[in-house]
Amino acid sequence: MATLEDIGVAAGLNILSAFIFFVAFAILRLQPFNDRVYFPKWYLKGLRTDPVHGGAFVRKFVNLDWKSYIRFLNWMPAALKMPEPELIDHAGLDSAVYLRIYLIGLKIFVPIAFLAWAVLVPVNRTSTGLEGAKLDNITSSDIDKLSISNVHSESQRFWAHIVVAYAFTFWTCYILLKEYEKVAAMRLQFLATENRRPDQFTVLVKNIPPDLDESVSELVEHFFLVNHPDNYLTHQVVYNANKLAKLVKKKKKMQNWLVYYQNKLERTSERPQIKTGFLGLSGKKVDAIDYHNTEIDRLSKEIALERDIVTNDPKSVIPAAFVSFKTRWGAAVCAQTQQTRDPTMWLTEWAPEPRDVYWSNLAIPYVSLTVRKLIVAVAFFFLTFFFMIPIAIVQSLASIDGIQKRAPWLKPLIDVPFIKSFIQGFLPGIALKLFLIFLPTILMIMSKFEGFGSISFLERRSASRYYLFNFVNIFLGNILTGTAFEQLDSFIHQPANEYPITIGTAIPLKASFFITYIMVDGWAGIAAEVLMLKPLIIYHLKNFFLVKTEKDREEAMDPGSIGFNTGEPRIQLYFLLGLVYAPVTPTVLPFIIVFFGLAYVVFRHQIINVYNQEYESGAAFWPDVHFRVILALIVSQVVMMGLLTTKRAASSTPFLIVLPILTIWFHRYCKGRFESAFVKYPLQEAMMKDTLERATEPNLNLKAYLQNAYVHPVFKASLGDDDDDDEEVMSSKWETESITVPTKRQSRKNTPLPSRISGASSSPSLPDGIRHQPEP
């Protein structure tokens, strides 16, 4: 059990770590050769150039202006200066709204902390419950005397906790309501004012039924000419180009190695040699440059052959297509309605923006998605619940007792007060952090296997699973290991009727562990985020070995993104800890407030100067954020009811039952009031934007704008710098592919509208008045 001294040591170590990170960042960001690492966003926008320093040669690499080092923290106020509207224009709505999550944390927890410390801390501190409980199997410290555990059972003081719990609930709901209203208005305003984008006019159509007489492209065109005759514009079928994408990726890797060996030849004047066997450790020794030139030529031929197969083989076309419309209104009608009697066919949804499309998953057959979801659900269940076992083992090893049992020879070292405080206050948190380092990658692989077609949805699904994992393993798991595993022997030797009392008392006592975890993950972790040590090293390695041109230098930059799949679940864990422990152990709240404040400044700086977001969803993730805060609030209310029950506060506990009911009702109200703004596009807004565009740009060639917007990027990447003619042919192929073709059907399901090529309809099943209707 960590004491106040242990917490103080951990806080000191984390503050020192954060300070070292900030100082290192302040020094590194001032050096000219690091400018592209810490300001890549401005380079990608073309608004910044490499700093030029006259004079000595060393000035090209080192900043010799000593005055700039004095102001090493001036990046913090600079990060706060950019107004939110300008931030939205600069980085997008997703980034601006993501920052608001940190602001919500401050808005919720700062007033709650004042109230908790003004009311609950004196109530808890002046009681003597832990001294009078005489629970030999539970160890407590001075920090626990500030918690609800220190209040006597059946005490009238619990009314203070109940009243404060109501205040916390109402305040949290009020902030959530205002923020949901604000973000919904921001989203609608953003959609109304943003520049023209292909996804505003485009719908993704899935599960197109097979037809023996027509290709997928012909079938799509005929279907939409019939059912959306006034709005259909063009379409692009989806190809299974996964094998081609692998070949292009392999060729790119070979080209990078070729550049590396060519640079090495220039530096050493000796032709490099490599082995062609496994990992270059075995096999025949050959000239590295000649070998990679040969491999690149071979891959180029394979790519050309595979590209020809993909574009000409009907089996490479999957039953899905991107369908574009003449107006946003037409796209909205199609995306938000059922197309046929069979609700499983011709499924339509808003197309992701082109850079948001996860092309590999579009080739997955629709019928297999349900099976994939079931497999992933089972795998995630086992991952979540069996992960608790190694976590418990690691946590036990990272404790005083665990180390003494497995390494008794370290006992003299452990007895040193500072070392003991470090182990109890710092080691468990950092051990858990290191143990979970590969979890986001595993969860993202699961989401990709599940088959979602956009990067934004992959990140949102990964974030949901990450949050559930944190809830089970970090929150519940650590509480259970703290009460049921570490103290199992004492539990066995006590009467069964005392189990609820022991668990109810021990839950708030785990606050000390969560405080250390917040400092390790929240304080030091956020400070490490701004240092960007990994991108710094990778950039300089690439710059030294691979860069030959300005384009190579731009590709060497790795600005990254906000990482919604990892960042948002971490924030939500702090919401959960703050709301659960606010009425139980208010000591946790200052540490959480420091995290939210520090993270807001750091991530604002990163979004302004570093991150280059992969996509823009218009804050479509906000309903998930709102729901998880609501869930944390309900958990805090249930925990409070359980604690008061173990404290035999039977007369006051029923008053808390109303809180979860009110919270659920509040969530349903917000869902009905605001959620539609995040899943639907109002037809009124679409019509207004279309009307304005027609008035301001009457000669807009929309078809030319949308024609190649959703061409698989691998077709462009597979063309080299000398393949301009091939690129023109490829572009021409996409254009002719979307032109209306004469129907080949002989059935009664023929297209009732005339083809733009044949000039007449071949449908004998419809009246002449419809059959010979002129083309719209």
Automatic annotation (TrEMBL):
Residues 372-644 form the CSC1/OSCA1-like 7TM region domain. It is found in: Membrane. GO terms for molecular function: calcium-activated cation channel activity. The keyword Zinc does not apply. The keyword Cell membrane does not apply. Residues 200-361 form the CSC1/OSCA1-like cytosolic domain. GO terms for cellular component: plasma membrane. Residues 752-767 have a biased composition (Low complexity). Its main location: membrane. InterPro entries: Csc1-like, CSC1/OSCA1-like_7TM, CSC1/OSCA1-like_cyt, CSC1/OSCA1-like_N. Keywords: Calcium, Ion channel, Ion transport, Membrane, Transmembrane, Transmembrane helix, Transport. The chain crosses the membrane at residues 6-28, 101-120, 158-177, 374-398, 418-445, 466-485, 514-533, 573-603, 625-644, 649-666. Residues 722-776 are annotated as: Disordered. It is a multi-pass membrane protein. Belongs to the CSC1 (TC 1.A.17) family. This is Calcium permeable stress-gated cation channel 1. It comes from Sphenostylis stenocarpa.
